[in-house]
Amino acid sequence: MGGYSNFHSHCTYCDGHSHPEDFLKSAIARDFRAYGFSSHSPIPFETSWNMPKDLMMSYITEINRLKKKYNGQVEIYLGLEIDFLDRTYNASKDYFRNLPLDYRIGSVHFVKGLEPLSANNLLCIDGRYRDFEDGVKQLFDGSARRITEVFFGASKEMVEKGGFDIVGHIDKIYMNGSKYPGFDREADWFQKPFLELLDLIAEKGLIVEINCKNWLGRNQMFPHISSLPEIKKRKIPVMVNSDCHFPELVNDGREETLALLKDAGFRVTRELVDGRWGEVVISE
After folding, report:
1. At what angle do helices 144-161 and 129-139 cross, to 10 degrees?
2. pLDDT string in tens for the chain (284-residue length)
3. Is the sign of the CA dihedral 140, 142, 143, 148 positive or negative?
4. Which spans in the chain are helix H?
5. How far apart are alpha carbons 217 and 58 in whole angstroms?
6. Cα 201 to Cα 25, 78, 164, 236, 237, distances in angstroms
7. Domains along the chain with CATH numbers
8. What is the three-class DSSP state of 211?
9. How far is the first Cα of the chain from the last one, in angstroms, to the nearest whole number?
10. Which one, of 224, 247, 249, 227, lies nearest residue 236 by Cα?
């Protein structure tokens, strides 16, 4: 089965830098088989990158319009990257379950340091390092270990709650965490909850995203490249996504990442094919 695919993509409905159709044109020009949109979900407070709730129906209408317009040229899928904030706000909510989506990505971008759920009590782990550093000091007593444990605790609770198909950038805590004093990916307090999370994902039958957004620019992959054997050992299905925010980056890092997967013993990825989840052979 030829052609590329990408199921993690952002556009002007959230923090992407162009209209949905521009991403499709870029994908078609690169011989894509399938393309999925996964705008950041609405959350209970305003951010610079989450979709406002009142745009949801417009987003759904626009992607469905593009499905009809480009029918026969590329498979187009309507998805959403849904934030896990805590047990009260996540992909298992009826609001998200009832949306007419083709697939859902569950991701942890915000880690709660204090009660109640509010913007002031959450730290975004996926933004500027300066903000991450300040947040760890203010909400987690300056402890790299504590925020790491809370991050993986939230990730495990997200998987338990369910309501999604794909686990997004599973260990992204290390993006900023690796710069923070005292952070250690090899420490037991990182590895133990991470491996427990993989066990839970395997039990629930979910897909782990291999997120290659930062691979070419920063030599970072989520999950970390050293984790691939553990994922393989548990027979967890994987897919490769560029998490792109610019049309020209729809395929950024994908070929290199697929080669690394083959080196780690993976032979197939899990993708939507003609509207159903199936296995796609990693080509030579």
Report:
1. 90
2. 458 999 999 999 999 999 999 999 999 999 999 999 999 999 999 999 999 999 999 999 999 999 999 999 999 999 999 999 999 999 999 999 999 999 999 999 999 999 999 999 999 999 999 999 999 999 999 999 999 999 999 999 999 999 999 999 999 999 999 999 999 999 999 999 999 999 999 999 999 999 999 999 999 999 999 999 999 999 999 999 999 999 999 999 999 999 999 999 999 999 999 999 999 999 86
3. positive
4. 20-29, 56-69, 94-97, 129-139, 144-161, 173-177, 188-204, 215-218, 228-233, 254-263
5. 33
6. 34, 23, 12, 8, 10
7. 4-281 (3.20.20.140)
8. strand
9. 12
10. 227
**Site of tokens 């923070």:** 180
Cα(150)–Cα(48) distance, integer angstroms: 24
What size, in residues, is the chain?
A: 284
Round to whole Å and give the CA distance between 143 and 157: 21
Tokens of 269: 């990825």
With beta carbons less than 8 A apart as the criterion, state whether 28 and 73 touch. yes
Structure tokens, 42: 């609405």
Whole-model pTM: value is 0.97
